[in-house]
Amino acid sequence: VIGTGASAVQLIPEIAPVVEHLTVFQRTPIWCLPKPDAAIPGALRQIMERLPFADRGARIASQAFVEATFPLPLHFGAVLPVSELAARIGRSHLRRQVADPVVRRKLTPRYAVGCKRPSFHNTYLKTFNRENVLLETDPIRRITPTGIRTEPGVLRDADLLVLATGFKVMETGSMPPFPVRGAAALDLETWWDENRLQAYEGVSIPGFPNFFTIMGPYGYNGSSYFNLIETQMRHILRCLGRAREQGATRVEVRAEANERFFRSVLARRRTQIVWQDSCSLANSYYFDKHGDVPFRASPTLETMWRSARFDLDDYRFEAAEAAA
Fold first, then answer.
1. How many CB atoms lie within 10 A of CB 107?
2. Where are the alpha helices (DSSP H) in 144-299?
3. Exposed, middle or buried: residue 188 (CB in 10 Å: 0-12, 13-18, 19+)?
4. Beta-strand pair 155-157/250-253
5. Rounded Cα–Cα distance for residues 123 and 131 (Å)
6. Alpha-carbon gap, residue 202 to 121, rounded angstroms
7. 247-267 per-position pLDDT tens digit
8. pLDDT band at residue 57, thresholds of 50, 70 and 90?
9. Which of 48, 87, 201, 260 is exposed most, by the fewest CB atoms within 10 A?
10. DSSP assignment, residue 38?
């Protein structure tokens, strides 16, 4: 297996017990935190099933845990001690899970929590206690017909190779994975190349009327994707509601509103952990080709509040005759 990110954390504990031997190639260790995953007692389960909105408590608790271990360390780790607190939890979890001090040292991140995506798993780390699992941290020189040769020249034999090497997020041709043409045949990728990745509230781009995106730049804050979808859809539905009220067929965010939002998210860089020296060894994919980190530097409650209360006059609503 090449990689020790989110995909590898899920698959390694599952395949290790059934393969003859497993070699895991690691470039950068991941912060792996314990996952609260206890069974819900029968009585409490019955209450959650029968009382209206009782399951909201479970969601709030889950959201609070995610918020404390990712969005807050990422966006406010430079001014609040949340990143170090999460790191203490991670190091304690690592000590309990891994017996060999050498392996434990290799699995210990040298960067702060929040610099790149953390993971949550209760058996991933202890998998490296198995006799048939080897953690390889030497760089890969090349793939051979029979395995992988490292930079020191050691050949690790392999019958099967799993590439758990990540995914493209904000790269050209990835988000969205199809061409988008705006007004006057303006190309979205070209616009982003020339103006940097940006979108008003992560939803709309000036010059691209009637185009809304859920996963636009500075839309996602690191929280749950469920929350992202709900928040962005609340924003979009408000726009569509105003358009219906006014009989508008063209909805476009104003350039000045987009510029105001873009400057506001850039101004919050001083609080984000990714811009601190503690992230220099993270090899984080958060940085795009412009050197920006297009994550929304906001706690989840703020994104929810903004989606319900942003000024609809930040958009132009025009009827077909006016648009022509």
1. 22
2. 188-195, 225-246, 255-266
3. buried
4. unpaired
5. 15
6. 30
7. 999 999 999 999 999 999 999
8. confident
9. 260
10. P
Six-digit token pair at 22?
């497993």
Residue 25 β-bridge partners? 2, 136
On whether the CB atoms of residues 85 and 70 are closer than 8 A, the answer is no
Token pair 């991140």 is found at 109
Can you read off the two tokens belonging to residue 173? 């041709």
Question: What gap in Å lies between CA 201 and CA 213, rounded to an integer?
Answer: 10
**How far is CA 316 from each of CA 129, 236, 240, 246, rounded to the nearest angstrom?**
60, 14, 12, 11
pLDDT digits (tens, 9 = 90+) for 153-196: 999 999 999 999 987 777 777 778 889 999 989 999 999 999 99
3 state SS of 308:
helix
The dihedral sign for the CA sequence 82, 84, 90, 92: negative
**Average pLDDT value over all residues in the chain:** 93
The C-alpha atoms of residue 187 and residue 95 are separated, in whole angstroms, by: 51
* DSSP state at residue 269: G
Residue carrying structure tokens 């070699």: 23
DSSP state of 301: H
Q: What's the rounded Cα separation, in Å, for the pair 139 and 116?
A: 20
Distance CA 279, CA 165 (A): 20
pTM: 0.87
Full DSSP string of 219-233: T--SS-HHHHHHHHH
Tokens 């969601």 locate to 59
Query: By CB neighbour count within 10 A (0-12 exposed, 13-18 middle, 19+ buried), where does 36 fall?
Result: exposed
Q: Rounded CA gap, 253 and 183, in Å?
A: 13
Token pair 């873009």 is found at 262
Residues 138/53, Cβ–Cβ less than 8 Å: no
Q: What is the 3-state secondary structure (H, E, C) of 71-116?
A: HHHHHHCCCCCHHHHHHHHHHHHHHHHCCCHHHHHHCCCCCCCCCC
At position 55, the amino acid (one-letter code) is D
